[in-house]
Amino acid sequence: MKDAGQHDFKFRKGQGLRPEDYPRRVAFCEGMLAAFEEDDTLIDRIIYTDECNYASQGVINNKNQHFWTAENPHLVREDKFQRHFNQYVWAGMVGNRLLGPVLCEAAFDGELYLEFLNVNFTCLMRSLDNKESLC
After folding, report:
1. b or e along 19-51 (b: 16 or more beta carbons within 10 Å of the residue's beta carbon)?
2. pTM of the model
3. In angstroms, rounded to a whole number, what is the distance separating the alpha carbons of residues 31 and 66?
4. Contact, 83 vs 57, CB < 8 A?
5. What is the pLDDT of residues 31-86, one digit of tens each?
6. How far are the Cα atoms of 67, 104, 114, 117 from residue 110, in angstroms, in the given order?
7. What InterPro entries does the record point to (predicted)?
8. How many of the other CB atoms lie within 10 Å of CB of 94?
């Protein structure tokens, strides 16, 4: 394959879209472009947020780990440790300011996210206004 000028490419994950999603996305983008034209400070007032889960199930990916030497050193990499962890993290940005990160005890469902918004998020926004340390 390499002799034929071909290269190895990997798939990357992408959001699955249905045909009816495209017109809604275009309408949203056009609406936002119009709003930005009317108010050039709007971008500084949009809050971007995300949350993720860092987890260890005791497994290490060895696909890209190589050790180059003339003789076999009989290397062993320990894995499948008995200590597992899950850590949920939320962070956001407004303008050029970072909100968080906030360590959460569990993944958000509707009820937990509403509680987070009422308690932590309000405190984070207040700290931006007052330039205080975060909650």
Report:
1. eeeeeeeeeeeeeeeeeeeeeeeeeeeeeeeeb
2. 0.60
3. 50
4. no
5. 999 999 999 999 988 999 998 888 776 555 666 667 777 788 887 777 666 677 78
6. 47, 14, 6, 11
7. RNaseH_sf
8. 16
